[in-house]
Amino acid sequence: MPFLAGQVVTAGQMDRIQPRPYSAAGSGTVAAGSTNADVTGATITLTTQTANAVFKAVCVWDFNTTGVPGGSSTARLALDGVGQSPLATWRGDAANERGTVSQAYHGTVASAGSHTFKLIASTATNTEVLGANCSIVVEITEVV
Questions:
Q1: pTM score, two decimals?
Q2: Do 127 and 65 form a contact (C-beta atoms < 8 A)?
């Protein structure tokens, strides 16, 4: 809802339109050969006050090929258990390769209430995700 000329704006309305930043870092390891596994610790649970809050997210995963490469690995942001697009992709074509992959997301949270943003990864054979080097930053801006 837009502000109207001459409208008295409440403190609550001003508070909601300020961007709110959240961040989390991962821990542990996502094992090779996993499918849509959570990156332990790289989870943010927050509460929005209004429907259609806008989010921006930047996510980083650390892939490590531990042996003979076994194909491509992917990762993504999950919002309330639903994988978001686009994918972050990694392919280690030699043994003992390592790479940090990032992806940016932008969208809306349809309803007010509690929401969970987390990093998930699907790893190829002999490729793992090192959670301690993974992170997620989410910024929420709510409509008035």
A1: 0.89
A2: yes
